[in-house]
Design goal:
It is built from 3 helices and 4 strands. Helices cover 28% and strands 22% of the residues. The protein is an alpha+beta fold. The longest helix is centred in the C-terminal third of the chain and has 12 residues. About 32% of the residues have low confidence. The radius of gyration is 25 Å and the shape is globular. The chain has a domain of 70 residues: Translation Initiation Factor IF3, CATH 3.30.110.40.
């Protein structure tokens, strides 16, 4: 067998190597373009002045939604409510309740087996 044909055979049998060139980081924020970060300055945000929390850990459906509803009934337009729950159904139930009642879910995240939901009250 010809040495040239052997080297061609070896090249044909190798699988293509994946592209390992550096890739740009992906942003996890929706609707925001990649822009260089500005130096930290106090933001004039629309964040509410009051901050409330509902601890719905170890409560099962429908109690996390009921506790959320009760807390929001005592709050004012623009205030922020954070709900902490261990019920996996809260990821669906609380945002659904908010959508029906006109409140805005700002964030849903999971941390240490807890679901943390941030809600902006729209009364």
């Amino acid at each position: 067998m010809n040495p040239d044909s052997m080297s061609n055979n070896n090249q044909d049998n190798r699988s293509p190597q994946p592209d390992r060139s550096p890739q740009p980081e992906k942003s996890h924020q929706l609707g925001k373009s990649h822009q260089p970060e500005k130096s930290p300055q106090p933001e004039k945000s629309h964040q509410p002045e009051s901050n409330h929390h509902v601890d719905a850990r170890r409560l099962l459906c429908p109690l996390p939604v009921i506790r959320t509803q009760d807390a929001i009934a005592q709050m004012h337009n623009g205030e922020l409510l954070t709900v902490t729950s261990t019920d996996p159904g809260a990821k669906v139930d609380i945002p659904s309740w908010c959508r029906i009642n006109g409140h805005e879910v700002l964030e849903i995240r999971e941390q240490d087996h807890e679901i943390i939901i941030s809600i902006k009250v729209n009364q």
